[in-house]
Amino acid sequence: MNSNTNLNLISKIFLFPKLVFLYNRFLQQNNIEISLSLLTRPNLLNGLIKLFNKNVKVIISERCYPSIAYSSKSYRLKLYKFLIPKLYNKADVLFSNSYEINKDLNENFGVKLPMNVIYNPVIKKTFKTSHSTEAPSDYTLINVGSLYAIKNQSLLINALANIKFNCKLYFVGNGVDMEKLKFKSKTSNLDSKINFVGKVKNVDDYLLKSDCFILTSNSEGFPNVLLEAMSVGLPVISTNCKSGPLEILNENETIVIKKGEFYLAKYGILININDSIALAKAIEYFYDNKSERDYYAKLAYDRSKDFNLERIYPQLKDILC
């Protein structure tokens, strides 16, 4: 750990008590009865508030899979394993956006308070009309998200190298791995097939022009982008990463996926993390079977309705009230 990192960590440690004091004073001065926090550090602060203000209903929400999200540095994981059970358990209620997150908090971080799951909502959209023929010459794949290691977009480039038919791939998003991925696509002789769009405001326009959405992540908190693709009627392929894809695509029913193979889940295709062979097979399966593409497109669209704002909002309201 370099000196700048040490200074940053020390600054945060000394700043934290001040933030607790200021926030508690704000709550008292404004007679606030409910304190809701999202993400780890605000959650820790909110847990401390309960020590000083018993009348406030403290609600915290975890948005990532802790054992993976906090494992980048051993000292960080140890720190959170010390702080989370002590402060999260002070809260009145905890909710996350995945059953797997709650399970991880309980089994690996000692969180024992009542835990709920409220999924991230998606806005209702119009179903995409399929435009692909039986053997589409313009078959288009799309991946949307930040370009960095945990999202593992290189998996998609590796899979594309094993695909024989003509297709196009769009990466929509920016990130630190942009140049690395561009170099990989060039050295794999795939740069004519792969388009790096960058960050855009009209993501739906790209989704509507595509034939299949692919999520390659090694880890997610809850993959909103998977739902966004499903909400316009795109068939989807996803890694079975922690956490979210299994809950979205197979209603959290446990499955076993063989190495090099894909699994036809209830609402899309699941593959193991970092399995480029399985991903190539899954892409080819949708390409070769228009009836299956259309079938899973409709299933995906119908499944996305379970996450509409009209269904999710009352769940949050119940916790707040």
UniProtKB/TrEMBL annotation:
Signal peptide range in chain numbering: none
Domain Glycosyl transferase family: 135-301
Alphabetized Pfam families for the sequence: Glycos_transf_1
Matching SUPFAM superfamilies: UDP-Glycosyltransferase/glycogen phosphorylase
GO molecular function: glycosyltransferase activity
Classification via InterPro entries: Glyco_trans_1
PANTHER family linked to this entry: GLYCOSYLTRANSFERASE
The protein's name: Wlae protein
Species, as recorded: Croceibacter atlanticus (strain ATCC BAA-628 / JCM 21780 / CIP 108009 / IAM 15332 / KCTC 12090 / HTCC2559)
